Amino acid sequence: MLVDNLKTNLADLYALYIKAQNYHWNVEGPDFAQYHKFLGDLYESIGDEIDVVAELIRTMDEYAPGSFSRFSELTSIEDERSIRKSLEMFTILNMDNEKVLTNLRSTYEVAEQDKQYGISNQIQDIITAHEKHAWMLRSFLK
User: Fold this and answer.
1) Which pLDDT score is estimated for 12?
2) CA separation for the pair 132, 134 (Å, rounded)
């Protein structure tokens, strides 16, 4: 069901948002300024996407989940409980971003099958943004 996919997307994005913001606050090292800026831009971009997905859920006359407990039930992204070295941060974000992309692509397919083209178009925009995030994250790891 499309709305269930969207709820999973919302939880995934929120989990990735929190992790990126945590890393933004706590990143260290010789490339601090570059990493800090990238992570800040990343979590701000994801924050905008969270609002888009929540509003897509509401357009389907459903309520958007909005609690940590509900998000943790819906997402496969693990909570970060450690302070990591910068390269570990980027490795984890890259893996988590791939999970987000997998779920977004699934939502896109369901929306297309359901002829919900407005939703599929907005999800496609988010996919495009996360494909760019993936490229940048991979580049930090080379």
Assistant:
1) 99
2) 5
Task: Please state the φ and ψ torsions of residue 125, each to the nearest 5 degrees.
Answer: -60, -40
**Which tokens go with 46?**
């994801």
Of the pLDDT bands very low, low, confident and very high (cuts 50, 70, 90), residue 45 is very high
Alpha helices for the chain (secondary structure H): 2-26, 32-59, 68-74, 86-113, 117-140
This prediction has a pTM of 0.96
Per-residue pLDDT, 106? 99
The total of structural domains in the chain comes to 1
Residue with tokens 């494909």: 131
Computed over every residue of the chain, the mean pLDDT equals 98
Can you give the residue range of the structural domain that contains 49?
A: 2-140
Is 19:77 a contact under the CB 8 Å cutoff?
Answer: yes
Among residues 93, 81, 82, 97, which one has the least CA distance to residue 35? Answer: 93
Rounded to 10°, the helix 32-59/2-26 angle is 160
CATH number of the structural domain spanning residue 25: 1.20.1260.10
CA-nearest of 25, 16, 12 to 105 is 12
